[in-house]
Specification:
Elements: E1 19-22, E2 25-28, E3 39-43, E4 47-51, H1 57-71, E5 75-79, H2 85-88, E6 99-103, H3 104-122, H4 126-131, E7 142-144, E8 148-152, E9 157-162, E10 172-176, E11 181-183, H5 208-220, E12 225-227, H6 237-258, H7 263-277, H8 286-295
Parallel strand pairs: 4-5, 5-6, 6-7, 11-12
Antiparallel strand pairs: 1-2, 2-3, 3-4, 8-9, 9-10, 10-11
Helix pairs in contact: 5-6, 6-7, 6-8, 7-8
The protein binds zinc ion.
C-alpha cells in the first residue's frame, strides 16, 4: 500500500527541542500528531519529573534521553496521566532509571486492560504497530491512594491529583501550585472533540459527571498555563471549552431521549449539529461516541 496525503504521520515524539514554558518547566509538544501527547519535564533543585512517556519503546527512549539531558544528575520521576497507550506505553525504558509514580486505580486499570489495548493499538495500522514493537508494559514503583499525592523536586512541589473515573478509571492531573501550570492528560484537549472511549461491552469506564467536576476543580485552580493532553498550550479557556462541550452533548441527548429518539437517530441528528458548533476542532469521529455514552446513561 502506498502512502497517501490522508495517511496520518507516524506517532513519533519529536523530543529534539523541548520548549521551556517557565523557568525549569519544559514541554515536548505533540505538534498535533495523532497518538502523540504533550509531554512535560519539570526540574527542581534535586529531582525532575517527567509527565507521560509517549507510546512505545523508541518514543520512551527519546523522552528519557531528553529528560536526562535537562535533568543532569537530578533524581528522575515519571508519572503517567492515565493508562492509554499514547500516554504511558513508553514507560519501559524508565524502569530502574526513574521512580515511576501514579495512583493505585490507574495501576489496576493498566493491569486489567493494558495488554488488550496494546493489541488493539497494534491493529491500528503499520505505523502504530511499528511504534509499539518490542514494547512491554511495566508497573509503577510507587502507588498512592486517595485523591492527591505530592512530589517534592527541591524548591518545587508538584501536586498529582485524581478524581477517579472520568475519561478513564483514574485520570490524573499534574499541577505546579506556585507557577499555576496544569498538565491535564486527556481530561482536556485543545480544539479537539473530547475522547469518549466508549467501547461497549469491552470498555465502558467513563463518568462524564466526574469529568465535569474535575474540570470545574481545575478551572478553580486558575491555571496560568494549561498543557492539554493533545493540542496547543493555552489558558483556562481550554478547560471551559471541554466542560461546556460535555454539558452541551448531555443536554442535547437528554432532550432527544425525552422525545423518544433512538440512540442511532440521535447520532444521526445531533452529530452534525454538534460538529457545526466547533468548526475548528479536530477528530469529529469522537462526537458519536459521546452521544452513545449519554444515550445509555
Ligand atoms: Zn486518553
Amino acid at each position: 500500500m502506498t502512502e497517501t496525503a490522508n495517511t496520518p504521520p507516524a506517532p513519533i515524539v519529536d523530543a529534539s527541542s523541548p520548549k521551556e514554558i517557565a523557568d525549569g518547566v519544559f514541554v515536548i509538544e505533540d505538534h498535533r500528531i495523532p497518538l502523540v501527547p504533550n509531554i512535560g519535564i519539570v526540574l527542581g533543585e534535586h529531582s525532575a519529573l517527567v509527565v507521560d512517556s509517549g507510546m512505545g519503546r523508541a518514543n520512551g527512549e527519546a523522552v528519557l534521553a531528553a529528560a536526562q539531558k535537562l535533568a543532569g544528575s537530578r533524581k528522575l520521576y515519571l508519572t503517567i496521566t492515565h493508562f492509554h497507550p499514547e500516554h504511558g506505553y513508553g514507560a519501559e525504558p524508565f524502569k530502574g532509571v526513574a521512580e515511576i509514580v501514579y495512583n493505585r486505580a490507574q495501576a489496576a486499570e493498566l493491569a486489567a486492560k493494558g495488554e488488550a489495548y496494546l493489541d488493539m493499538f497494534k491493529g491500528m495500522g503499520p505505523a502504530v504497530a511499528a511504534a509499539l514493537e518490542n514494547t512491554h508494559l511495566v508497573e509503577a514503583d510507587t502507588l498512592y491512594d486517595g485523591g492527591e499525592h505530592e512530589v517534592e523536586l527541591g524548591g518545587r512541589k508538584i501536586l498529582l491529583k485524581t478524581w477517579g473515573k472520568a475519561h478513564t478509571q483514574a485520570d490524573q492531573i499534574v499541577f505546579l501550585p506556585a507557577e499555576k501550570i496544569l498538565f491535564t492528560g486527556d481530561l482536556a484537549e485543545e480544539k479537539t472533540f473530547p475522547i469518549f472511549p466508549w467501547f461497549p461491552p469491552h470498555d465502558m469506564d467513563i463518568d462524564a459527571a466526574t469529568w465535569v467536576k474535575a474540570l470545574e476543580d481545575c478551572i478553580a485552580l486558575s491555571p496560568a498555563i494549561v498543557v492539554p493532553g493533545h493540542g496547543d498550550l493555552g489558558g483556562g479557556d481550554i478547560l471551559v471549552g471541554v466542560r461546556d462541550y460535555i454539558e452541551d452533548v448531555k443536554a442535547r441527548v437528554d432532550t432527544g431521549k425525552n422525545k423518544g429518539m433512538s440512540e442511532d437517530a440521535m447520532v444521526e441528528a445531533l452529530g452534525p449539529e454538534i460538529r457545526a458548533r466547533h468548526p475548528d476542532w479536530h477528530f469529529p469521529e469522537w462526537i458519536d461516541f459521546a452521544i452513545r455514552y449519554f444515550a445509555q446513561q
